[in-house]
Amino acid sequence: MKTMNYSPEHLTSNRHLFWIAAVLGVIMMAPVAWIIGLSLKDNAELLKGTEAVFAMPYTLVNYANILESSSVFGWFINSMIVAIGQTIGVLLLSSLAGYAFARLEFPFRKTLFIIVLFGLAVPEQAVIIARHQMFNWFDLHNTHIGLILPNLSSAFGVFLMTQFFRAIPKEIDEAAMLDNASTFRIFWKVLLPLTLPAQATLGIFTFLQAWNDYWWPLISATKADMYTLTIGIASSQTNFAQSEGLGFLGAQAVFASLPVVIVYIFFQRHIVTAVSGGAVK
């Protein structure tokens, strides 16, 4: 039986790592605690000085004001529509493309796959002018479709699903063919259920990216009723000290982050698996 090394040097090293991790954790959580503190303070007190964050009393009036604000809920709904729409679209298209690249034979397959991978190296800013003009021609600005479409082509998603499909033994396909299953039936009924870990990973990352996206909604959504939460909250920062106040702005930020926190809580196992590379394995 293998014995564990619990020497004093080993325990001291672990304690040092623990305290380093604890300090880094406090530093990372400090801005979050600051925003939460702002959201729980009366705006009149914050106008006198932000040091009031560290003193009682606290209040939920800023969150009550959010519930009464139709604009914030409208931005929230827009963000949900865009994030869910992008997630579903990316999962569907990436799964189909990944299956084709991994299991089917067609002309220029390897060349097309390399071209897709080049998409990982092209920044969004490099194509923003052409994209803006194209969406303007088709009158897609200030629409949910216009906010969803640009990010449906995910080079990372295609790569991830291709690698996962390649890891599945081809004997499964052959067994399904013996049962007279069509190509689409093999994909939909046999192989796709086996890729749930990769789909969960891709879905989480796509949702978080879509929810936090600022660049394209800033350009495409020019009407207030089409703002996503990121754009809506940013637009209210220009005159927050004179109108809503720091507390209300902090409450908006906390409210906007709730879906992200919920996703992390319920899908943290898949996130850890994705970061460690377990999804592809």
Automatic annotation (TrEMBL):
<feature type="transmembrane region" description="Helical">
    <location>
        <begin position="112"/>
        <end position="132"/>
    </location>
</feature>
<dbReference type="GO" id="GO:0005886">
    <property type="term" value="C:plasma membrane"/>
</dbReference>
<comment type="subunit">
    <text>The complex is composed of two ATP-binding proteins (UgpC), two transmembrane proteins (UgpA and UgpE) and a solute-binding protein (UgpB).</text>
</comment>
<feature type="transmembrane region" description="Helical">
    <location>
        <begin position="16"/>
        <end position="37"/>
    </location>
</feature>
<keyword id="KW-1003">Cell membrane</keyword>
<feature type="transmembrane region" description="Helical">
    <location>
        <begin position="246"/>
        <end position="267"/>
    </location>
</feature>
<keyword id="KW-0997">Cell inner membrane</keyword>
<dbReference type="InterPro" id="IPR035906">
    <property type="entry name" value="MetI-like_sf"/>
</dbReference>
<dbReference type="GO" id="GO:0055085">
    <property type="term" value="P:transmembrane transport"/>
</dbReference>
<keyword id="KW-0812">Transmembrane</keyword>
<feature type="transmembrane region" description="Helical">
    <location>
        <begin position="144"/>
        <end position="165"/>
    </location>
</feature>
<comment type="similarity">
    <text>Belongs to the binding-protein-dependent transport system permease family.</text>
</comment>
<keyword id="KW-0472">Membrane</keyword>
<comment type="function">
    <text>Part of the ABC transporter complex UgpBAEC involved in sn-glycerol-3-phosphate (G3P) import. Probably responsible for the translocation of the substrate across the membrane.</text>
</comment>
<keyword id="KW-0813">Transport</keyword>
<feature type="domain" description="ABC transmembrane type-1">
    <location>
        <begin position="76"/>
        <end position="267"/>
    </location>
</feature>
<protein>
    <recommendedName>
        <fullName>sn-glycerol-3-phosphate transport system permease protein UgpE</fullName>
    </recommendedName>
</protein>
<feature type="transmembrane region" description="Helical">
    <location>
        <begin position="186"/>
        <end position="208"/>
    </location>
</feature>
<dbReference type="InterPro" id="IPR000515">
    <property type="entry name" value="MetI-like"/>
</dbReference>
<feature type="transmembrane region" description="Helical">
    <location>
        <begin position="75"/>
        <end position="100"/>
    </location>
</feature>
<keyword id="KW-1133">Transmembrane helix</keyword>
<dbReference type="Pfam" id="PF00528">
    <property type="entry name" value="BPD_transp_1"/>
</dbReference>
